[in-house]
Design goal:
With 114 residues, this protein is an all-alpha fold. It has four helices and no strands. 18% of the residues are buried.
Length: 114
């Protein structure tokens, strides 16, 4: 069981860094272009994307690409939507609820066969 959990940890670790990178880009959008704050946010975003890419390359060793890629993409989408709502008060209506529900259903389907 622990071995299986560590595989899933490898699968979701790049999700965390990719999500952080996208939220940092949004944060940078509120900074004055080419200001120190803008460069810091963009710099951290680049680092997070690099780590996400490197960790994803490890994850695909342990999962089929037909599982790893959609899980990565859907998970990042779910977390970015939630981040937008939590950090910036972005809208969260019926469309978002339906989309997130379908995303969660897709994750359950993809991961149930693994």
């Amino acid at each position: 069981m622990l071995k299986n959990m560590s595989r899933y940890f490898l699968l979701f670790l790049p999700v965390i860094f990719s999500t952080a990178a996208q939220l940092l880009i949004k944060h940078a959008a509120f900074k004055e272009l080419r200001s120190i704050g803008w460069y810091v946010a963009i710099g951290w975003s680049i680092i997070a994307y690099f780590l996400a890419f490197a960790l994803y390359s490890v994850a695909v060793r342990h999962f089929a690409i037909s599982v790893a890629s959609p899980v990565n993409t859907i998970s990042v989408m779910l977390l970015v939507v939630l981040g937008g709502v939590v950090f910036w008060g972005e809208s969260f209506g019926l469309r978002q609820v339906c989309g997130l529900s379908l995303g969660i259903f897709a994750l359950l389907l993809l991961l149930s066969g693994d």
